[in-house]
Design a protein that fits this description.
By secondary structure, the protein is of the alpha+beta class. It has helices spanning 2-11, 39-45, 72-82, 121-129, 162-168, 174-177, 207-217, 241-248, 267-305; strands spanning 22-23, 26-33, 47-57, 60-69, 88-89, 95-99, 102-107, 110-116, 157-159, 184-192, 195-203, 224-228, 231-235. The model is unreliable at 1-14 and 257-261 (pLDDT under 50).
Length: 323
Amino acid sequence: MLRKLVFLVCAWPLGAAILPDHIGDFAKGETKTLAASDAPLYQEFGYLNGEQAQYTAPGKRFSASAWRLRDSTGALALFEVQRPPDATPAKVLALSAKTPDGQIVTYGNYVFQFTGDLPEQKDLELLYAQLPQLDRAPLPALAGYLPQEGLIPNSERYILGPASLARFEPRIAPSLAAFHLGAEAQSGRYRTPKGDLTLVIFSYPTPNIARERQAEYLKVPGTIAKRSGPLVGVVAGPVNPDAAEGVLAGVQYAGNLTLNEKVPVNQGLFMYKLFLNIFVLSGVLIGLSIIVGIGFGGFRILRRKLGKPGHDDPFQLLRIGDK
């Protein structure tokens, strides 16, 4: 019985509603559950649940689809899969794109697709702020290492395991990628004078592991691999070597360093706070001295009144001028 209760408590939030009853002036109508269109792939991305609802307002209507993932990395992977080939970049959110009939965006571990008469951005921001179980972890830096020259728009795919590798670059074996070592990958299609090719950049925990993996990739006939730090860029299959080398030349790892920068100081405010602290400290010390002095003197007077001998030792006054 206890195990059933624990299961219900853990599972209930996962099925909690994502889309609210109202978004701005729009009211929610028919709602349905979004099932995973590709079960192995969605499971690898960490798909939890999804909804699709119709919203209406006087003279307006739009459809909202929402997918909830386990983390922001899974949301990035699903965003790249759901993004239409003809989408164009948008500046709404860090991961967002305009579609011919709306927009698709990623917010934390959620992916949203809106079609129709879109509500105002401030109403959508209110929707994002109220999302349950929101994960705002930073997006993986690997997504930014794909060379941009020759990259076919919207061809990027994030790879988290064997299922996504089989969908986006089946010529590379999962055992060769070694996901058990903590690998993740970002792929993209490139247009070159010698024909299109697919580049997959694998990220490994350490440069040493990447070096070992590069050696294994190079053992596969027709495969070209380049290592840069913990990254290994791989072009597999029968491709033109010169074209592959040209694309791989753009794979460059750049470590991110955080430097402690000097914070600008307002000199006037700094001097004001300095003198204020000095006066406060002086006042505290004077107050403590008065309290200690009164206490010590009162203690000696009380001892005398009680007839207890004090600690006053007799002394003799010597006048230096006396002869």
